[in-house]
Each structure stands twice: as structure tokens, then as C-alpha cells.
Amino acid sequence: RKEVEQDPGPFNVPEGATVAFNCTYSNSASQSFFWYRQDCRKEPKLLMSVYSSGNEDGRFTAQLNRASQYISLLIRDSKLSDSATYLCVVNSDDYKLSFGAGTTVTVRA
Amino acid sequence: GAVVSQHPSWVICKSGTSVKIECRSLDFQATTMFWYRQFPKQSLMLMATSNEGSKATYEQGVEKDKFLINHASLTLSTLTVTSAHPEDSSFYICSARLAGKPQDTQYFGPGTRLTVL
Fold it and tell me: Would an 8 Å CB–CB cutoff place A100 in contact with chain B?
């Protein structure tokens, strides 16, 4: 079983729409959770950390459910520039990070 | 701050040759660097953890004699793919951990795209 699993999508949404997706993780001892964004043929870039109480950063809202071991990301008022692959990342062991395969989001005009 | 560079950004080589990829932390000292590999439409897979002045720790299934890692200074780690074959073609990404930050804070380099003919 993969450590981090994500729906690959793609999620095709019009500008201004809300899009949400989840990931699940297998290691119940995981302590840190993140969403990264990866553009085509580029390195991943940190979008936001995910905290137990849930957190918001502008149009992006992340939630963590430790009991069910899933993390969610919601994007409100989608922009064309939000088109990317969103990687769910969990720390698996000490300082090692485990990456999901990503959820592709395409925002159309 | 916390910029990580990689060189080269892309490389094409013939099967059987060796390729060296450099990862540098430009404005900070990195006691630990990580090497990842990403195949198309797949997740980043950690290959090895590189600690300055000591031997790298390889993940299960990664051949240490094929992927040589050297972390000679606090700002430079190198990955050498020896006797490269077409199946080694991939996107190689390094990251560096900044001392004093939470243990899971990693800064990623821009990646190196390797194509083996």
C-alpha cells in the first residue's frame, strides 16, 4: 500500500469555481502534513502546511482528519494560474517526506 | 532566502556513460540533502539522504553502487548516475534541509531531467 494516495484527477473546472480533493495517508504516526504545487516539468513548491485545526491561506483551505487519516485541499474562486498538479506530502519517518502522485487541476477560461 | 540550485538542468547521454548532477544550497548551509527521482505521472520517490561528511543512506531498492552520492561540504551534494541506461531516464530533484528549521522543512532544487539514449 502506498504511503500517500491521491485521486489523480484531472479536475477540469471553469474559472471562479470551487474545487476540492483529498488524499489519504497510511502512517498513523505522521506528524506533519503539506500541500505542494508542481507545475509541468518543474520542482514542487510548498503551497501550505496543514494543521490539525484546519487552516486557510487566501483562496486555499486545508483540513486534516487524523482519525480517518485524510487531508483535503479546497480552492475557491479558481484562477487560470491555479492549473497545476497538487501533491499531498506527509512526513513518514524523522525528516523524510512521502509524496502522493498528485492531483491534476485544470482551470479553464 | 533558502535557494537551492541544481546543475545541469537537463542532460542527454549515451547508454553506459556516467552523469554527475550537482545540488547546491546557495544562501544557507545544509547539513542534510535529499535526492529524489520522479517518473512521468508518478510521485517523487526518495532515493537517498545525504549527510555532510558521512555516507549517504539509501532507500530500499536503490543501488548505492549505481547512484553515487557525495556530500563533501555544507553547500554541495553530488549524485553520479554510473553506467546510465535508458531506464534511468527520469527527473532527478534534490532538496536541502535548513538547520534550525522544523525537521521536515525542505527546499527543493529545480530538478535535472536526464535522458539516456
Answer: yes
Which grid cell sits at B63?
Answer: 543501488
Provide mean pLDDT across the span B87-101: 87
CA–CA min distance A29, chain B (Å): 14
B68 or B105, higher pLDDT: B68
d(CA B47, nearest CA chain A) in Å? 11
Q: Are B23 and B4 in contact (CB under 8 A)?
A: yes
Taking the C-alpha atoms of residue B50 and residue B45, their distance in angstroms, rounded to an integer, is: 15
A101/B42 Cβ within 8 A: yes
Neighbour count for residue B97 (Cβ, 10 Å): 22
Longest CA–CA span in chain B (Å) reads 42
Element (H, E) at A1: none
Q: In the structure, what pLDDT confidence band is assigned to residue A5 with cuts at 50, 70 and 90? A: very high
**3-state SS string for chain B:** CCCEEEECCEEEECCCCCEEEEEEECCCCEEEEEEEEECCCCCCEEEEEEECCCCCEECCCCCCCCEEEEEEECCEEEEEECCCCHHHCEEEEEEEEECCCCCCCEEECCCEEEEEC
Q: What pLDDT is stored for residue B23 in this prediction? A: 96
Q: Does A32 touch chain B (CB under 8 A)?
A: yes
A40 pLDDT higher than 70: yes
Distance of CA B69 to the CA centre of its chain: 8
